[in-house]
Design goal:
5 helices, five-stranded mixed sheet
Length: about 160
């Protein structure tokens, strides 16, 4: 199987929506609080929000393909720091991986690594010094994957059901 990566094109919209919906469906059963859900209009609405964010924040979407089918995607943006934040943090441009997804059938074949490499190269070109990725705590596979690429824990978001 030959895997290629390339920038998103408008014709990929439906395929990327399906990726995002599959990601949500993957995370939902991992949620110990059972709060993650995906109502029918979510995928298309979230895609519209992402495209707007990508446009506003000098971001990009890359897709991975095999046999002319989208098998995964990554969404990255450049977060420009607010002036107040610059008083307490030295980096002026921060890259953020907003979403990364690869269909289960294609995992462990280097697809996510190819997408991450594309994303990191893009963010380097945009003069980003640091890349941030939010990982859902129960998603240990994703956490281990990012650690294997050299990412380390920096912030821990804690919750308590009351």
């Amino acid at each position: 199987m030959h895997i290629t990566t390339r920038p998103y094109d408008q014709s990929d919209r439906d395929a990327v929506v399906l990726c995002l919906e599959a990601l949500s469906d993957y995370l939902s059963p991992l949620d110990p609080l059972k709060k993650i859900r995906r109502l029918p209009p979510w995928g298309k609405k979230y895609m519209g929000w992402l495209l707007n964010k990508v446009k506003r924040q000098r971001g990009i979407i890359f897709v991975a393909q095999a046999d002319d089918r989208v098998i995964g995607c990554i969404v990255v943006v450049v977060e420009k720091m607010k002036k107040l934040d610059q008083l307490s943090f030295a980096v002026s441009h921060l890259g953020r991986v907003q979403e990364l997804f690869v269909y289960e059938k294609h995992r462990r074949h280097g697809v996510a690594s190819l997408l991450m490499d594309k994303a990191e190269n893009y963010l380097r070109e945009k003069k980003c010094e640091i890349v941030r990725i939010e990982v859902f705590e129960p998603n240990t596979h994703a956490h281990n994957f990012y650690q294997s690429l050299g990412y380390t824990d920096r912030i821990r978001d804690m919750t308590k059901q009351i």
